[in-house]
Amino acid sequence: MRRIVHTLLRFETLIVLKYPLRTLARALLIFCLKTPLTVVVAHAAEITGEARVIDGDTIDIGPVRIRLHGIDAPESDQTCSRAGGGTWNCGTASTRRLADLIDRAKVTCLARDRDVYGRIIGVCEKDDVDLNALLVREGLAWAFVRFSEDYLSQEHEARAANIGIWQAETTPPWDYRAQRWERAAAASPRPGCPIKGNINRAGEQIYHTPWSPWYDRVQIDEVQGERWFCDEAEAEVAGWRAPRR
Fold this sequence. Notes:
By secondary structure, this protein is an alpha+beta fold. The protein is built from 5 helices and 17 strands. The chain has 2 domains: 4-170, CATH 2.40.50.90; 174-237, no CATH class. The protein has helices at residues 90-102, 131-137, 152-161, 173-187, 232-237; strands at 4-7, 13-17, 28-30, 38-40, 45-55, 58-61, 64-68, 71-72, 80-81, 87-88, 106-114, 120-126, 129-130, 142-143, 195-199, 205-208, 227-229. Helix 2 (131-137) packs parallel to helix 3 (152-161).
């Protein structure tokens, strides 16, 4: 089998397609002037390069955004219940742990799919360690069984050990997002569209979801060109990007 290596723009990022040349027509890289790179993946593809952590289940490798397959980590501003009472910053802990594991090193992700926001869904490894599995095993992410049961055994281990998110009953991130979305959507001046499209002092167009740690502090001034969006895909198509952490 032939191996084709593409260097993406000026980034030291490789997408390695382990299939014959005739399959390349099915793997497209779409570059747009104001929107993030979208990678349309057919069959399996490896994305390798220096990684930057966005949150507990999302990384960037060069211009490619990758959502870790089969897991759902706490949102960045989410807190979880602590054994014996009180809460801890589980969202921050998950993000920091992934950052410590990667430390801007070379990471390889096997693409499984692409979501509605254009992100690659992948299984990511560093030094042959499955990062998706490790986060679940350490109690810093849930097995995202709505989409995959690949990490249920690791979740059972963490739950049995009462570690991390399993030390006390807590709200899973999908319910947390839904609750935050419903409250923000009801309060939005554009009904049902709570995402804030902000323009910062540098002129960058950045959108904030209701679970963004900066959401409550961002004020939208539509006279200045700022906007409300109904979903992340709408915001990205319009040229706004998610905040960097």
